[in-house]
## 1
Amino acid sequence: MAKILDGKEVAAALKDELVAEVDRLRKQGITPGLCLVMAGSRPDSQSYINSAVKRCSSIGIDCRVKKLPEDVTQGDFLKIIDDLNTDPKINGIMVMRPLPQYISENTIKYKISPEKDVDCLNPINVSKVISGDDDGFAPCTPAAVIEILDYYGIKVEGKRTVVIGRSMVVGRPLAMMLLARNATVTICHTRTRNLAEETKKGEILIAAAGKAKMVTKDMVSNGAVVIDVGINFDESGKMCGDVDFDSVCPIASSITPVPGGVGAVTSTVLAKHVIEALKLQKGIY
Ligand code: NAD
């Protein structure tokens, strides 16, 4: 049976470090600040915000939520981002996606200050992820995957690592981050032929497709490390990942559960990025 890679344990260890860091900053009279911006009323965005605010507040970060109507104009949206860019109390800005139809993500992403862009929307941060520079911000979810691998001492160097999914939020940046750590990376997507043939090559297999239980045991090689990024709901409405946990667990060497895996680490990584952003902005090393 696979060892369970416990996201809650990873998040708790990271939280302890961050609380100590925030205490040190507080003694210098500085408190990190985060603003989450949400336009419209998508329940998934709202539930992300609730858990991010809860987590970041518990670490000592001042959290603000800016809720905008679904029909907010592009001009008003840009003005809000401008104000946050220059607000000295705000060190990190996170814009919930998908944006409503009247707002162009392509415009917003250039507007958000790269130094406050804690979830890697701005192409400057994207390019830093691609080039392996460590002074930018990667998106929180792939960064959470890396936190889990590091916490459990799972080395990726030289390993055949297969990522299912090529979105800008998860699959693509994650592949680049693994490449920067010298993994041999294959990216699979909806047009990949013989998916199982590709995924079986993975010593490390990471699923970020958003398809409930699509990774079955015939797609996983014996002893593989399996990381499940997916957040889905099965026929009975129960949360599940992209991996069919019950069938894959007996053949994998280690595996993240859903819930309690990658998703449990993401908001703590957001807090980490806000603290890093503050230090970057204030020149604290
Ligand atoms: P997305 O829909 O933007 O991208 C999915 C990707 O998977 C696409 O690149 C697509 O080509 C690929 N894909 C889809 N079906 C496939 C199939 N049958 N075979 C091969 N490839 C396939 O989704 P996303 O935003 O990248 O999110 C992926 C999953 O991760 C979702 O379940 C989402 O809820 C979850 N997620 C989790 C967290 C977290 O904190 N754990 C954060 C963000 C997203």
Note: The mean pLDDT is 97.
## 2
Amino acid sequence: MSQKLFLLPGDGIGTEIMAEVEKLIAFLNKNKNTDFFYEKGLVGGSAYDEYGVAISDEDMAKALEADAVIFGAVGGPKWDNVAYDKRPEAGLLRLRKDLGLFANLRPAICYQALADASSLKRELVEGLDILIVRELTGGVYFGEPKEIIELGDNEHGKQQKRAIDTQLYESYEIDRIARVAFDMAIKRNKKLHSADKKNVMISGVLWDEVVREVAKDYQEVEFHHILADNCAMQLVRNPKQFDVIVTDNLFGDILSDAAAMLTGSLGMLPSASLGAIDKKTGKRKALYEPVHGSAPDIAGKNIANPIAMIASFAMALRYSFNMIELADEIENAISGVLDDGLRSGDIMQENCQQVSTSEMGDAIIAKL
Ligand code: IPM
Ligand code: MG
């Protein structure tokens, strides 16, 4: 049976790194007995330029129909002045919300060959393997009201405004993300930290209450509560103390960028965004994207690092198609080319060979 993918390269380097995934798909279909079929769509600034919105309804419909969405990156200075609801990021947020992708898995693995590329000392990051489980469809990203209200002029005739974002969580949202995180922890090193700001935020109090309740169903997992600010500090102080970290949408956004950098470069980090498993079909909606952004400054130069994009595709094989061996093969091919000394500019080190985006893609495919 053929598997239906929907590719959304997006903006900036999105197109270049997605081209490497397309090469990989063609190779797998030819040599590894897969039967992937794909269509491509527009998202972000590129969709805005074409349709005046960050994603069209037709492309949304295709994303909803696909077995998996493979996403590049969105955004860039070109769209800085676009209306807030049409900005490039709105396309990604709509995909997450409408597909119900509440669970965002962001693994941060430090490849042996890259331990010296990290901003931290080798001994702190060598062998690092942590997983951030970020809640992705709730919290301050989506809470209502979300608005700017005009308050009228002050005594100097200057217009005053009030901006409101709403941090909002219901117990079921916390419960389901906590279960995803504990399930992951059981398959890994059975240790889980839950990060919130319950010392300041009432939503944090509920977060902690619900996670602790879920923890009772997972007695074999060592559970720790951690305040999100302390978690950020501990990530750069002693990252190897962590195995799985579960946290809300905003803290997850911030902590995962910090965790990413431990591995050498933001260009290395893949992610999977998963919905609930459909009880009838056993399937779940899913989107796979690199954690890095569209990097407009280096777009179009064939120098971007395609590894996070390719590793995101490997996550699709693992989580959407249960092709575990093939996913392992791709991940091994990535560490293989790094061991061979091939580097894109962002992870370039002494005595290594700098390669372009397409050369890196070719080298990974050659390893397969
Ligand atoms: C991420 C990104 C997005 C987010 C942006 C592009 C909306 O930073 O996936 O981490 O904030 O979630
Ligand atoms: Mg982010």
Note: The longest strand covers residues 143-153.
## 3
Amino acid sequence: MHDRKRVLVTGGAGFLGSFLCERLIRDGHDVLCVDNYFTGSRETVQHLIDDPHFELIRHDITFPLYVEVDEIYNLACPASPVHYQYDPVQTVKTNVHGAINVLGLAKRTGARIFQASTSEVYGDPDMHPQPEFYRGSVNPIGPRACYDEGKRCAETLFFDYHRQYGVDIRVARIFNTYGPRMHPNDGRVVSNFIVQALRDEPITIFGDGTQTRSFCYVEDLIEGFIRLMGAPQGVTGPINLGNPAEFEVRELAEMVIALTGSRSHIVYKPLPTDDPTRRKPDISRAREELGWEPTIPLRDGLEKTIIYFDWKLSERRVSEPALRVEESVPAPRSPNIPKLPVNAALAGLNGTHVSVGSHSL
Ligand code: NAD
Ligand code: UDP
């Protein structure tokens, strides 16, 4: 018999959260999505709102929440450096007070609880690639610390609730993830470059572009979430989830220009303080304990993401409601953008609608 669970997703109206909510509903669960709309929006989950297995609540997790649930995914927290540095004190509160509140809820209800931690707990790493036992190199007083140290403290809380109260925890350290439904003004590198390229605006590389990142397509990541949550008792993590293929930021820029056929040129801007120089996950543990590894190469994921942004930036988004997948996607602006059938183009949007969200920051 199917085991229908009541699942709470905090930050469910954000980029990753919206994919997770969809996946959980598809897997036959009831989803309670909680979000304060700081970087997420109702529009991101608009296509789920009429689903009887989906419920949306505006709530800030820095305040306690009293609901009855079987599982909790704690994703609430802005992920883009631009956004988490916008109100750093709130970022710390979301990570620390928020973790205490959701862990308290897990303790009371006996729910299994998943934490969306981050590769940022490794800071600017002096071990490469980064395995889970590496303790990191984080500047505790820099502009990124509200996020890095906030997430590190959240991990501490998760493991203390586990040791002290027996709470069933799952901690994933997520590396850079991208895909459709990132907000055009999100500020992270993949969405920035694609939007700039589609608009033929300068591509802004921070520093000399030799810093590296490893980019995971969103659907691969969500599969990792589900496997970690479903792993046997005692698998607590932390487990790295990310794509180990490593790219320089300037390689990413060149790839985006080539795939979009853009006339954009590259401009170099100062490197932000404490910007990590290298980042690549060691995913041996995820392979061994979850049988998980990414399947979507960067080029393929970028193509899907470019098609989404090309549609998103086109005029039809302004006044029209959600695009259904059975409708046709507007022809790509550039001849270099592959003309995929709509279901393939919007793969990752799981057979429902595409949202037309607008965030306000
Ligand atoms: P996002 O900014 O799109 O989504 C975060 C969501 O959390 C938004 O909907 C936002 O409104 C909500 N939120 C923020 N503060 C809140 C609060 N106090 N109460 C309730 N809701 C709140 O980011 P994302 O990329 O979807 O990231 C989701 C989670 O995954 C975050 O915790 C992030 O730290 C983590 N993560 C993401 C990545 C990535 O590359 N996407 C990498 C590492 C970690
Ligand atoms: N970056 C860039 N141009 C941009 C945005 C980001 O060169 O317009 C760089 C940024 O300095 C970092 C990398 O791209 O080295 C990834 O940045 P992002 O904000 O996506 O995430 P991070 O991994 O730094 O948290």
Note: Residues 318-361 have pLDDT under 50 and may be disordered.
## 4
Amino acid sequence: MALRDFFISLSENEAISTAAQNYGFKLGAQHIVAGANLQEVIESVRTLNEQGIACTIDNLGEFVTEEATAIQAKDEILALIEAIHSEQLNAHISLKPSQLGLDIDIDFCYDNLHEIVEHANECGIFVNFDMEDSPRLQMTFDMLKELQKSFNNVGTVIQAYLHRAKGDIENFKDSRLRVVKGAYKESEEIAYQDQLEIDINFLELIEYHLTHGLFTSIATHDHNIINHVKYFVEQYNIPKEKFEFQLLYGFRKDLQVELAREGYQVCVYVPYGEDWYGYFMRLLAERPQNINLVTKRVFNK
Ligand code: FDA
């Protein structure tokens, strides 16, 4: 089994995930998770805002199978929206539909999302639906389309590894979109497996949305992609207000600050909460060197 597959299978293992939470088996995850609770994450966001960096905040959790757990997650996100609003933070929400009950019942999930988006809309806050693995993709797009009939403060993510991505980005060109390479294990029938093919598609999607779309979040730690985007926006006179670079909390902090100093909009994806295990394992899956980042900090404390 390849290392990537090994970590992805660990990310989906419920028993280990529960054990990790229950026994506080932190493995250094605190360096890439911005806090265990609302109060802690607010402090982390404030610090980033002071450096001229915006945030998208994710209350960690996914693949929920109990209604009560999904409702608890919804209530936490509503409280987070309140906090962003009252503390006047430069931040918006990222969420995973499977945390809000997508695997239980789509109508139940839709109602939860509706409540969140409606409240965020009242507070002038944007909500982004993270894109999960392919079985959840069309349902996520369908719920988004329905919500966009009433609200314009909601968008999602386009994954460049998917063959269908160009059609999807065209379909949602009037939305604010985050474009990424894609983090899940998908079959060759539906997804590019070759890194170069993914990178080429990634750049084409970014260029399309920069020139045809509403607002583009370019979410990557790849300096080659970032440098290409810098060159492209210059060539096509794309104003800096029309796009931002997004990076994950704890990753390439130097680059985050450097981009902000150069005058680009930078937004950091800030995860918080107890349910960090799946997120953490996917990060190890996609870049095993990430384990160095974590272990070095654990042992150099
Ligand atoms: P990738 O991992 O392909 O690395 C390319 C090169 O960049 C490396 O070879 C190295 O040179 C450099 N590099 C990368 N990381 C580095 C580091 N830490 N330090 C130094 N150099 C580094 N996925 C998804 O499916 N759904 C989603 O909703 C999201 N959301 C999301 C939000 C944000 C803000 C980000 C940054 C990413 C996501 N993703 C995601 C994950 C995304 O799909 C992808 O899996 C990861 O970002 C990894 O791909 P990269 O483009 O970062 O570079």
Note: The two ends are 33 Å apart (CA to CA).
